[in-house]
Amino acid sequence: MFTDCYCTQFRRSSRALTRLYDAALKDHGIRITQFSLLRALRRLGGAATFSELAEEVVLDTTTISRNVKILAAAGWVSFQGTDDAREKKIRLSSAGARKIDTATASWQVAQDQILASAKDIFASRKGDPLIDTLEKLQALSGAVDSEEPAIKQGKRRKT
Predict the structure, then answer these.
(1) Where are the domains of the chain?
(2) What CATH code is assigned to 6-152?
């Protein structure tokens, strides 16, 4: 169902992109949320506090904590104490580094699909370019519902 609300469209697009990346990474036994945290740890030099990782990926520390437990259970990260007894460092393990290396090609396939779609979006340049962009991103994973033909004909229904 169409809405002209950018926030709703961004949320739909975010979920659609997550499904696209999750599908690309499925054979590697990792989800995009987990892969993104591993990559963030690598960008941060292989280790970071919960607060540092949360800041890097723009999530709250509660969400980071929940997701890092999953990474630790898989053996992709370990924990290390710091001078401050209230904080621990999350350390990317060698298994985590290997997981990044083996899954990156599949992640790149999803990246390339999104880039190709973006190029298509900006080539057409009609209507509301932001809504068109968000709808095309949603369509990458089949998230746009059966009203898509009506949307393409400009018969958008506001909700």
Answers:
(1) 6-152
(2) 1.10.10.10
